[in-house]
Amino acid sequence: MPISNCLNMAGSYLAATATPPETCVPGRRRAPLAGATTRSQQRALPKPRSLGAGSHRLAVSSRHRRRLGVVSAGNTGRFGLDSNSELQVTVNRAPDGSVVEVELFATNTGGSSLSLHWGALQRGRKFKNNDQNFQIHLRTTDLHQGQHSAPTETRRHSSTERIARKNRDVMQLLSKPATSHVNGVVQTSSKNPTVLDLFLKSLQDKGSCEVLCKKLFKLGEKEILALFLEEQGRTKVQLATNHVEPLILHWALAQKAGEWKAPPAGILPPGSTLLEMACESSFSEATFDGLGYQTLEIELDDDSYKGMPFVLRSNETWIKNNTSDFYLDFSRRVTKSTGDGNDGSKGTAKALLEAIADLEEDAQRSLMHRFNIATDLAEQAKDAGQLGLAGLLVWMRFMATRQLVWNKNYNVKPREISQAQDRFTDILQNLYKLYPEHREMIRMIMSAVGRGGEGDVGQRIRDEILRNNDCMGGMMEEWHQKLHNNTSPDDVVICQALMDYLNSNLDITVYWDTLNKNGITKERLLSYDHPIHSEPNLRSEQKDGYRAEGEGFMVGVKVNPVKELPSGFQELLKFVLDHVEDKSVEALVEALLEARAEVRPLLRGSSERLKDLIFLDIALDSSVRTAVERSYEQLNNAAPEKIMYFISLVLENLALSTEDNENLLCCLKGWNHALGMAKNSDNQWALYAKACLDRTRLALVTKGEEYHHTLQPSAEYLGSLLGVEQWTVNIFTEEIIRSGSAASLSLLLNRLDPVLRNIANLGSWQIISPIEVVDELLTVQNKSYDKPTVLVAKAVKGEEEIPDGVVAVLTPDMPDVLSHVSVRARNSKVLFATCFDPDILSELQCHEGKLISVKPTSSDITYRETAESELLVASSTGAQDDTSGPSISLVKKQFPGKYAISANEFSDEMVGAKSRNIAYLKGKVPPSVGVPTSVALPFGTFETVLSDKMNKEVDQNIQSLKKKLNQGEFSALTEMRHAIVNLIAPVNLVKELEEKMQGCGMPWPGDEGEQRWEQAWMAIKKVWASKWNERAYFSTRKVKLDHDYLSMAVLVQEIVSADYAFVIHTTNPSSGDPLEIYAEVVKGLGETLVGAYPGRALSFVCKKDDLNSPKVLGYPSKPIGLFIKQSIIFRSDSNGEDLEGYAGAGLYDSVPMDKEEEVVLDYTTDPLIIDCSFRNSILSSIARTGYAIEELYGSPQDIEGVVKDGKIYVVQTRPQM
């Protein structure tokens, strides 16, 4: 259905869904007295005319102002405006005296627009509109036209008229359903396989048997499975059924469609009877795992056959496929299933998709058949969970976009399609009610299917098209015949085109324009089983009759009141319908969103009319998108505040269509806060808005990835089974996204981004570290490039390794400046920069494979193509400085004879620099800075535990895996990590660690039970195992570091349950300024800052000679914060970190004993963001801490810490590299 029609249908339908209230929407500025419009007045008011593009306001002249009170109740007063213009004011008091109606009508204004500036008095009290005069546009007309002559089709209200939205908390729109996912795996209810499932699997498990074609037919409550297969070079037909009664197969072969040809005598199964044009063969009884079935095998002698038609006979009863013969089509081949997803079915509800493919031939007979089949498959889709519903959506979407046949010469009445559609949408309504976690997917299915409804409405309209309007022959009769035989969604477009044609005074170009805009061409009209050859050629006197029938067809449902709709909802919908074609759409979009917000609570309940409400919400959603798309041109030169406001509107619409919408709502609150900052002339508003933009864009990317992960595999697998064109399959997920609000939102963000960057003086680049194109840096981190290479990476997570030979990494992604990959880029002297301008990035990608020279400045990057000779000179110069990369030597550490040591025992023979530095800080930092108590498991502990006899099997496994690794089998790294977590803790290790922790005043996990100690022991083993993570292993190989000599101590600290975490570089890493501190701050634990968590941290700089004046460089855009209860963290502390010439920091893992809780962050309630005084205090304290520690060590420091209740804690420091 065309989007433009959705609201027409919803509006026509919903204008009468609520019992009309006695008052209009509170705050609606249309009648002089809010709440005073009665139904009688609504009927009496003449329809307004369009104001026209050149209209202007004309205030009531002061010399004609009079108090309305002078007009007695029930009387009319007239006021002269100009020489021949008049304002008529009528006052009517309701019988009970509760309200007063005031109607104003201006005449003979010459087409000018009028505005009324007015107020109200009540015994000395004056009412105003927020301290401003009320202003209402008046309907105008010329006397010679008549007062009620404005035609319906030209209705248009002033864009300044708008509803007043309720002041509701954004979080009232929150939807956070319980998920059915566990560890990222969709949980589906198990379904016992049938005997036919087992029979098919037994054939597929044969290595010599390939299923070429498969079809499952229904036999009432039983089924018959028909297979065309190849086994050892011979082709066969294999039939199996769970039908109980003895069966006879009446069959033939076909070399063309519709043919029945008797098979050759040489291929007949034993006991067969050859007839003139067919053959009859009996099924044989068999069992599988105790389950009985019947089977029949036919071996073919020729591969020229196209298929096999057949029917069945049970005793004297003939069994057919509904009213047709069964047919196994040999030409429709399926991919051989490997059972492991290598057939393209990975990430899909495979069994459901194959069932759909088996039934597609039946579904193509008509839309009635398709909807009935979909209804039958809905239970199976539900049992398969999210992926099952995804499969159903893909199938319905292929149908809606005409990738599948709608009708194959099957006569079906409109009522039959409507009834089938209604059955299917009833099932979807029930699933929507019972499974909140799947509502978003179900809603998309319903949008593709359409509502269904009272089946005889379309039938009755169709019959009356000819009967009542005196039009036999031509286009109308041809359409009548199409409606009679194969009604389809195209008919909605055809009807709309006819209505537009009628409303345009029979302009035939308008008819074709509507058809073509919705994808219906002359060729498509001719392609129907009952083609439409002619174009409409109506007479003027036929217009009214056809218009009435067309409007009835477009509504297509029986209108009954929805009792649950809130008071005033009818007026709200009426406002929408009055303004649905306004050129200025702001007021319309506000009203549409208000309507959606009002309906939303009913969608969460168990309304009797839930399906109607869902389709209403779909129509409102669609109308928002249509209106916003219409506004793009107007926003070209709009102020940034206006674009921001439209972003907030579209974001709200997207949140209302999304089930898990907490992050979107937090983004929305951020935009509202940014608008408030701009309104108050806060000089940080653009910087804050840029963070909101980055977070919103990140949310869209995440949503797109979620859709792609859920839908695209099903689209690809089902598309291959059904023979859907590949280009359609390739863009399936993209088109799903483009059909929603996300696409509109993305366009608005792209329009605002350069504006904000300009206002905030951000430029197009952020230099993080002073062309081959890759999707992710992660995919090439272990690659080496022979020539100096500029890498354009579409995604950088933050934990990757920079490949050898790379001199620059340019990316649109936004890793934190102090993330691990950023630090390693600086240490390796690699240019690392974020590009905010998509045009620049696109231009860079066009240089793939070419030689370019890239030059950074303090805030920008220039690049140009260069010659091979220049590269050779640069390489030669670099080679002179190259010392050929000598390996970094490590001294193998020995086990000191202790499983656990306290901080006063830390030495370079026992622990790494991380532990030693934290022990050094204790007692030396200012009293305002806390340092957590620490103990450690020293170097050599892992090797000693591994050599313990109780871990003999693990040791043998690891030694075997090391050999594989040395031979270049890098998959052994994962196996190594899995093997290490099977280690058993020696009794003495547990005893010594308990003594050291309790002796230092730290809580001992074992006091809370054995399970708590097991959690701690697992965390320790994961730290040891991180020595063999891919990032660390490839990093050590690059610098020829002997991996066997790398030892891992474990630093044990009590976790400070942080409000904020920070990282400080006491020399600004971007500019190299030693007089300026640079720091980044996140809410919650620091893992979101240093790890691979998307979004940016709050960043600031502070001059060392003015530590009380931090300057914010960027506000946070990270959507997630990590929080944890009181717990213990086990930190990696190797002898391969902080070595001169090698940046090993951050390569290995630190693991908390307890799992962190992920919390969606709302920065509009965070004092660090909204309270300038608090922010200045915290950031100054962080800067002073960094300065004090740098003074203590006498060199630039890289410091990690947290803030708890305003107090600073430092958890580690190392030399800044």
Automatic annotation (TrEMBL):
Origin species: Eragrostis curvula
Known EC number(s)?
2.7.9.4
What Pfam families does its record include?
GWD1_pHisD, Ig_N_CWD1, PPDK_N
Question: What is the name listed in the Swiss-Prot or TrEMBL entry for this protein?
Answer: alpha-glucan, water dikinase
Supply one GO BP term.
response to symbiotic fungus
Q: Does the record's keyword annotation contain Metal-binding?
A: yes
Q: Where in the cell is it found?
A: Plastid, Chloroplast
Q: What is its main location?
A: plastid
Among the GO molecular function terms of this UniProt record, one is: metal ion binding
Cofactor or coenzyme needed: Mg(2+)
